[in-house]
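Next comes the chain:
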Amino acid sequence: MGICTRVREELTHAQDAVSAMTASQTIDELECYWKEFLHALERVWSKAQSSHKGNVHWDGWKGAYVTERKQNQMLAYLRHARNAEEHTIADITEKTPGSVTIQAGPTGSAVVRSFTVSRNGTVEFQGLGSIETTFSPGRVELLDVVDRNGATYPPPSGSILDVARAGLHYYADFVDAMERRFS
C-alpha cells in the first residue's frame, strides 16, 4: 500500500461523513456525522505525518500547512473542535429541534377539522376560516470550543455543512499537493 493511500482513505471517510451530513434525516444524525467528519479530517493530518516520518523533505514542506492550521480560523476551529470532542465532555454543538407554528390566518379565526403535513411539506387543512403555518427546521449550531490551555476558538461563519465542505476542500487540496510532491 502506497504512502499516500492511507491518507486518501481517511479523506474518503471525511467525504463520506459530509455526504451523510447532507442526507441526514434528523439533527441527531447530522451531529453524529459532524463528529465523524472531525475525527476523519484530523486522521488525514496524522496519517500524513506518520506516513512521511523520516522523510527529510517532509518537515520543510509541511511547515506552511502547520502554520495555516494554527492561524486560519476555520482550520484552527476544526482541529480544536475535534480535540474537545475527543478529550473533554464539553458540548461542541447545540441542537435546536424543528417546530411548526399554526395560527389563525387573515380571517382572524379558524376551526380545524383536520390538519395534515405530508413528507414533502405540503399542508392540508380542512375546516372553517384560514390558518397560517410557519416551519422552523431543526438546526445544529457550532459552539465555541475551549482548548486545555483555556484558549477559546469561535466557530467560523456559515452553516455546519458550509464549514464541513470548506474544511473538506482544504484537506483534499492538501492531500493532492502531498501526492504531487511525495509520490
About this structure: The beta strands are 93-96, 99-104, 110-117, 123-129, 131-136, 139-142, 145-146, 152-153. The first strand starts at residue 93 and ends at 96.
